[in-house]
Design a protein that fits this description.
Strand order of the largest sheet: 1-2
Strand content: 5-15%
Order of helices and strands: HHHEHHEHH
Number of strands: 2
Helix content: 55-70%
Largest sheet: 2 strands, antiparallel
Shape: elongated
């Protein structure tokens, strides 16, 4: 680092967080291949930490996506967040997940899809599994039985 006054009025040093951030950002832009190698090496040597960060990030995206879709089971109105899943309304979720990866659904709901309610809905785990195995949820059968009876 060159010794000159930085924007916040002190001499740049490795101890100054702001100076180091600016320096590293410029270095990454001018040395993209070295930056990728260094990042990959750091991730390998800190795999536990990286795994924990990735899991926390995925959990936050999942929570935001569920909140955006209504945070309540469309079938039985369950609202306990740990019981809720995101369901493909027209099916095909497994095929889509295999083809596009497990996290694309969050990116689609949170920013890429104009109206995610047409493609996705929130279901509790029980309703989601029932729909998957039987083609419909047991709650729907019960509601129809009440209408008929």
């Amino acid at each position: 680092m060159n010794i000159k006054a930085c924007s916040h009025g002190t001499v740049p040093s490795r101890d100054c967080g702001m100076c180091r951030t600016v320096y590293l950002r410029k270095w990454r832009q001018t040395n993209p291949e070295s930056s990728r190698r260094a990042t990959a090496k750091w991730r390998r040597s800190h795999s536990t930490h990286t795994s924990r960060l990735n899991k926390a990030s995925k959990t936050r995206r999942r929570m935001r996506a569920i909140q955006l879709l209504g945070a309540r089971c469309a079938c039985c109105s369950e609202s306990h967040i740990s019981f809720l899943d995101i369901d493909h309304i027209h099916g095909g979720g497994s095929r889509e997940r295999r083809g596009r990866g497990p996290n694309h659904i969050f990116r689609e709901i949170l920013g890429g899809l104009p109206n995610p309610h047409e493609k996705y809905q929130v279901l509790c785990s029980n309703c989601n599994q029932s729909k998957r195995r039987r083609g419909r949820c047991e709650h729907e059968s019960e509601r129809e039985a009440r209408k008929i009876g």
